[in-house]
Amino acid sequence: MNEAQHHDLEEVLHLTPKQVSTGLALFYVCYVIFDFPSNLIMTRLSPRVWMSRIVIGVGIIGSCMAAMKAAWSLYLLRLLLGIVIAGMWPGMAYYLTLFYPPSRTGKRIGQYFTAAQVSAAVVGLVSAGFQKMDGLGGLVGFQWMFLLYGLVGILVGFSLLWWLPDRPLPPGEVPDRSGWHKWIPQSTPALTGEDALIHYRDLTRVYHRSRWGVKDLWHVVIDWRVWPLLLMYFGVVGVGIGVQNYATVIIQSTNSKLTSIDLSLLTAPIWIMDLIAILLVTPFSDRFHHHRALFFSVPVCIQIAGLLLTTYGGSEANPWPRYGGLLMVGFGLGPTVPITMTWTTEIFQPRHGEVGVAAASALVSGLGNLGSILTTYALFTGWPADSQPGRKQYRKSTLVMVGILCLSILSAFAMTLLLKFVGNGSRAKQVSSGSSTSEGEGVMMDGAAKRELQERGFGRLWWSRR
């Protein structure tokens, strides 16, 4: 932002490209470390209070970023940002399973995830406006952006205490208002009357949860099913964050004549394509939820094709095919992360219950973000061999991203085959009651779980026949 006026982040803070990459990567280091404990805390406390705490914390740190003066302040605030935001993404995946069956969360997680795409697109558009504010009140463009976004985040965070519903309670049960609860505003229940009664009968596991202990947590950690999902997430989130952080420098490498405002505006369509793909694909991935690997792998192939076009397409006279490749990458990215998180909840809920959803989602999201560290620190401007200007700039970085996407595809199909031959039987007996429950495969299943076993979608494809 405002590079021509020497008011961009690097010049104002006197940073080298390597220091920028380090600052970006430090966020994910803390995210990896704190994602797991944050999600476990959410299962013991009020989910809406914990979500509100995260958003308020992000807003405060975001506002403070307007005051950065040197590399050390960038490092410190990025570390703090990773700590306070940890648990937000896997926490939302866990939160949605309190209201929907796991096999029906793909579309809902996708709808929630569209906020990230809308945000990325809006940032690209409004950053052009913030650049016009450069110098106003003694602040440069990026300082205005951090300050205003941070203040909005704080206001939204406090509003969640009134707006966001807490976990559902059995019909007739009143919320606990003792202890610290009496100081927290009471939100409106998500369901009331007949709707609440139907939900209670259909998702009894939500209402009759058992307290988990260290042994239960250990069973989730050592479950082999975490690792294929983690590798799936590693590839797609690494590419997604890499493109998000370096979209402008990738676009500039394809056309050096573009101004900083042009670059900001051209990033928005990438995330609009991402949003479109989420809305198109995730509902089908729920309808045919026994074939998650297929709905995951096809978009990943689109990403690979887009990266190759960005790397090898176009010419000096016509660089726009390379930009078209970035649009393909954006489209392919859309459904992959929501599908991975949905598949995680779908596999671990019947096996381990609520702690399985919370812990596995956090492990997949947290450790999977090691891919983000790779793309933000080791690649692009963080990789000296790829930082030299010219037509071949960033070629090695994009080929590395192609490689980790191939790993994601292999992991998805490995998971499908392993589930077919090893199985995904339920470990623990789920506590259930009501007329919609039935006994099966050593577990008490509520009505929603029973339907998930019966629904197949697409008929019996060769890899899912039993």
TrEMBL record:
Residues 1-420 form the Major facilitator superfamily (MFS) profile domain. The keyword DNA repair does not apply. GO terms for cellular component: plasma membrane. The keyword Transmembrane helix applies. Its main location: membrane. It is found in: Membrane. Coiled coil: none annotated. The chain crosses the membrane at residues 20-42, 54-73, 79-100, 112-130, 142-164, 230-251, 263-281, 293-312, 324-343, 355-379, 399-419. SUPFAM superfamilies: MFS general substrate transporter (SSF103473). It is a multi-pass membrane protein. One of its GO terms (biological process) is biotin import across plasma membrane. Pfam families: MFS_1. InterPro entries: MFS, MFS_dom, MFS_trans_sf. GO terms for molecular function: biotin transmembrane transporter activity; dethiobiotin transmembrane transporter activity; solute:proton symporter activity. Keywords: Membrane, Transmembrane, Transmembrane helix, Transport. This is Major facilitator superfamily (MFS) profile domain-containing protein. It comes from Letharia lupina.
